[in-house]
Write a structure and sequence with these properties.
Radius of gyration of chain B: 33 Å
Strand content of chain B: 15-25%
Strand order of the largest sheet of chain A: 3-2-4
Shape of chain A: extended
Oligomer: heterodimer
Number of domains of chain B: 2
Order of helices and strands of chain A: EEHEHE
Largest interface: A-B, 13 and 35 residues
Shape of chain B: elongated
Strand content of chain A: 15-25%
Number of strands of chain A: 4
Structural class of chain A: alpha/beta
Distance between the termini of chain A: 29 Å
Helix content of chain A: 25-40%
Structural class of chain B: alpha+beta
């Protein structure tokens, strides 16, 4: 644990915040399989449900080379460039 | 100090029993550490003293492992209290061990022994632990003690940061071990885009040693958030920037200067034109902090130059809240927005240095801040051999500030390199002569500044059409007055390359240069 002192005027809480969530899902959605066994089963089910509920969105499927390592930079860039949303599936 | 109430404490011994002070009895408190030879000499004495019924003995060890070793080495049966956090040792201001403190039943200090002096100790035992039998001839006459662990520089800084009377009041942010400290600080927006030094409490405590001012003293109210810039908050940002503690008074003085109504830092940072504070340091402090005034004075490579300017900018970003895209809206930005601070090489010319020209004593250390929109732009003249020619070159080059047709303008800084100083001084030129010459060579009639097909910038032709011949022939120099031309000497001995900084909006509606004496 490293402790630092706040250099700001302390008017904003310090926290790791998640990206603002959009109110609707439109455009292109990525489904990223982390390459752990049966993660694809979960994603297949999810893709079917998404098509059913959101027929207008386009879905792209991606797979990491291995679940033991972070996604390669090229894959992250490709997903970022071509998609508006990402769902990453764990298999545990 | 005799008579003072001693800090209360409660410490556990090695088997988990708690021992509190003050007791309802006279108490002997002794601070020891295992690797101190003198402490090892007195351990049997303390063990014997512990058996006394006249006073309670509390022996406080400074490391847990050391306590275990002392117990084993000396076959101790007395409890050895664990102060491995060193908080009690710090509270008692222990400099040397062994330290013996005698307290009365109210916890008031009566006496204090440092190190080992046989005569002192035997007298102490006779008086306060008289039912203890000691063979004093078996002990050396005198042994110095050892430094307390609380005096270790790293530990000392931590203890001061954690102490109840710590000067630190800023919010503490705990960064999880799984998080990267540097990435965290980038994510929080604490950085100007370059890595910053984590402002740990220990580093901020060390930084505060650079000033005698109270950590909570308000230095300025900083726009745009109008936030209180305390000495502590400035010190935190000075750590971020990479400053050494001795730079802090310069950073504080510069922040005082930019937060004046005259300098108008809100306008300086908000303008789309993109102005930056240029900080010029004069006086003895230059040498004391290693500020570069010579080769590459305006460039990289000097920690003082680089980090003082950066600390001011980071303070404005973090305390004031001026961030690009927020209230900072420069069209192009400028590398000067990272940092721009240098000193005048006062000794390289016979001229009055800038701070003396601005009314300070030569022995004062002074920072002067200017709002500059661009620079340094080089003035290349390797051919002029007379002062009028060379100062003429300065004028011709400086005429390009903002636009060649922008005349009667505001502040500009001229940095004269040493080779150019030699040429000018050979003809007896002073700074005043340079200013006069710049105004002379840049003066043109107003009619030459009218917009035309070559450039739409200049006096509106429709307005010019309404002007009389006398008005159109009225002479117009580059600067509104010679006072707007600020001259300093800097740079290496080799090279005929001076430089200029171009100003922003000058005067009460823009920014006025401000000087502040540095509190050293």
């Amino acid at each position: 644990m490293t402790t630092i002192l706040d250099p700001t005027d302390e008017r904003v809480p310090i926290e790791r915040s998640v990206t603002d969530r959009p109110t609707e899902i439109v455009g292109t959605l990525a489904l990223l399989d982390i390459a752990k066994p049966r993660g694809n089963v979960l994603l297949d089910q999810l893709e079917a449900k998404l098509h059913e509920k959101l027929p207008l969105i386009k879905i792209n499927r991606y797979t990491k080379p291995t679940f033991t390592k972070p996604a390669p930079g090229s894959l992250r860039q490709e997903i970022k460039a071509n998609n508006d949303f990402v769902v990453e599936a764990l298999a545990d | 100090m005799a008579g003072a109430i001693l800090p209360a404490f409660a410490l556990e011994d090695m088997v988990g029993n708690q021992h509190a002070f003050p007791k309802a009895n006279r108490t002997v408190i002794c601070f020891v550490k295992e690797d101190c030879p003198t402490c090892n000499i007195v351990m049997p004495l303390l063990e014997a003293g512990n058996a006394s019924t006249k006073a309670v003995t509390l022996t406080v060890g400074q490391t847990n492992e050391g306590n275990a070793t002392l117990i084993e080495r000396h076959g101790l049966t007395m409890p050895l209290l664990d102060d491995s956090t060193l908080k009690v040792s710090f509270a008692y201001d222990v400099e040397t061990v062994p330290l013996v403190v005698l307290a009365d039943a109210d916890g008031r200090e009566l006496d204090r022994l440092v190190g080992f002096d046989r005569k002192e100790w035997s007298g102490f035992f006779d008086e306060h632990l008289s039912d203890t039998q000691i063979e004093w001839d078996d002990y050396p006459e005198w042994r110095p003690g050892c430094g307390s662990l609380t005096q270790d520089p790293v530990i000392s800084d931590r203890l001061r940061a954690e102490a109840e009377n710590s000067p630190l009041r800023a919010r503490k942010i705990e960064i999880a071990p799984s998080d990267d400290v540097h990435e965290f600080m980038f994510d929080q927006g604490f950085s100007d885009g370059l890595p910053v030094v984590p402002p740990t409490p220990e580093r901020v405590i060390r930084m505060l040693e650079g000033t005698s001012r109270d950590s909570q003293e308000l230095v300025a109210t900083m726009p745009p958030n109008m936030a209180p810039a305390t000495v502590e908050k400035i010190a935190v940002n000075a750590v971020l920037a990479g400053c050494r503690p001795e730079y802090l008074p310069v950073v504080i003085a510069a922040i005082e200067a930019i937060c004046t109504d005259e300098f108008n830092c809100h306008g300086v940072f908000a303008t789309t034109m993109g102005a930056s504070p240029v900080m010029i340091i004069n006086g003895p402090i230059r040498e004391r902090i290693g500020l570069n005034v010579r080769m590459s004075a305006l460039g990289q490579g000097s920690r003082a130059n680089a980090t003082i300017g950066r600390a001011v900018r980071l303070a404005v970003r973090n305390i004031g809240g001026a961030e690009p895209g927020g209230t900072e809206r420069s069209t192009l930005g400028s590398p000067m927005k990272f940092t721009m601070c240098f000193g005048e090489w006062e000794e390289r010319s016979s001229w009055d240095p800038m701070h003396v020209e601005r009314g300070f004593d030569k022995n004062d250390s002074v920072v002067t801040v200017f709002a500059m929109s661009s620079g340094p732009t080089l003035i290349v003249d390797q051919n002029s051999r007379s002062a009028p020619q060379l100062a003429g070159s300065f004028g011709l080059s400086m005429e390009s500030a903002h636009h060649v047709r922008a005349h009667n303008g505001g502040d500009g800084i001229l940095v004269v390199c040493p080779e150019h100083v030699d040429t000018l001084e050979r003809d007896g030129y002073t700074k005043a002569d340079i200013r006069r010459r710049i105004q002379e060579v840049t003066t043109v009639p107003l009619k030459d500044l009218v917009a035309d097909d070559v450039s739409g910038a200049g006096i509106d032709p429709a307005r010019a059409a309404g002007m009389t011949d006398e008005m159109l022939n009225r002479p117009s120099p580059k600067f509104a007055s010679e006072d707007h031309i600020h001259i300093v000497v800097a740079g290496s001995d080799a090279g005929k390359f001076s430089a200029a900084f171009h100003g922003w909006a000058s005067g009460p509606m823009g920014s006025i240069p401000v000087s502040r004496k540095i509190d050293v």
